Amino acid sequence: MVAPAALITGGTSGIGRATAELLHRQGYRVAITGRSESVARARAELPDEVLVLAADLGSLSDTDRVVAEVRERFGALTTLCLNAGITRPATLETATEAAFDDAFAVNTKGQYFTLVKALPLLVDGASIVVTAGIGASRALTGNSITAGSRGALLTMIPTLALELAPRRIRINAVSPGYTDTPMLRSTPGMTPEEIEGMLAGMAANTPFGRLGTPEDVAETIAFLASDGAAYVTGQEILVAGGAGLAV
pLDDT by residue (tens digit) across 194-208? Predict the structure, then answer.
C-alpha cells in the first residue's frame, strides 16, 4: 500500500498551509509550494519533514522543478491540491492587461499545467482537489478578472473527472466563501482600515455571521482526499457558511 503523499500548491499560508498541517497530522507526507516571504516562514514554523518549495506557479519551468523534487522525495502522490492563487481586484474602468495576464497565468494556466505535469506521479485512485471560490459563480463587485481565472478551471472539472475516471482518480473543487486569509488581508490597493471594514461587511453578509477560517476549508479538502470520498468526483463543494444562498 502506498503511504499517503500530498502536493499542495500555495501551501505556505492561509488555506493551503492549514491543509498541509492537517494532512501532516493525519500521517501524510506533504510537499507545499509558495513564494515571497511566506516560504521562509513556513520552513521555520512547519515540521522539518514537510517539503517546502519556492515556486511561481505562473512559471512552467518552476512547475517542472517542483514535480521533479516531489518525485525524488516521495516517488508517487495520492493527493494533489491545486490551491495556489492570486487576486486582482478590478472593475472595467480600472482593469489592466497586466492584472488579467497575472491572474490567468497563475489561477488557470499554472494550476492546469501543474496537474498535467504531476499526473504521472498520481497513483490510481488518487484525489485531486481544486480550490476555486464562490466568486467564480456568484457576483462580487470588482472580481471579474479573478472570478474568470478561477472559473475557467472550475468549468473543466466535469470533463477532467470523466477523463481521469478509468484510473479511479477523483477531481473535485472546494469553493471557500468569505475566508479570513493572509491574502485577503493584503488585498492590493486597500489600506488596513479599508480591509478591516471589508472583512466586517463580509462577516455581516454571511448567514453564519462570521468569516470562514482556513481550517474550515482544510477539513473539507482532507475529506475529499480521504477514502471516505472514494465515490465522489466532478463536484464542487461550497464551504461558505451559507453565503450566496439568499436571493
Answer: 888 888 888 888 889
